[in-house]
Amino acid sequence: MYQSITANDLEQELKVNPRNILDVRDTADFAEGHIPNAINIPINDLPEKYNKLDSEQAYTIICYAGGRSERASQFLAAEGFDVTNVMGGMGAWHGEVSK
Fold it and tell me: Over the stretch 6-34, which tens digit does the pLDDT of each residue have?
């Protein structure tokens, strides 16, 4: 199992607590704009690259609308990771964006 958070609640949370943000969108979409300090592993690469993540850390997973991040959250939770899915994704994000 994994938790969920809305993009709005995540924005408020990041003002007081840092989080490890994992953006599972394609690299081109990530380059267009992402949450500052987010790391990018496209969902199609996740099965081969998730072992680069620290299993001792919690991750907040985001995509554009929430579908890919939900699949990534299910996958990582099954691998033993502590993950939170961002509902609404970057499409609902109104906070700071890096390029």
Answer: 999 999 999 999 999 999 999 999 999 99
* Residue 76: Cβ within 10 Å count: 22
- Measured between alpha carbons, how far is 51 from 34 in angstroms, rounded to an integer? 22
Nearest to 64 by CA among 89, 40, 85: 89
User: How far is residue 34's CA from residue 70's CA, in Å, rounded to a whole number?
Assistant: 18
How much is the pLDDT for 66? Answer: 96
- As annotated, the active-site residues are 63
59 and 14 Cβ atoms separated by less than 8 Å: no
Characterize the bridge pairing of strands 58-62 and 39-40. Answer: unpaired
- pLDDT value of residue 12: 97
Q: Sheet of 39-40: strands edge to edge? A: 3-6, 82-87, 58-62, 20-23, 39-40
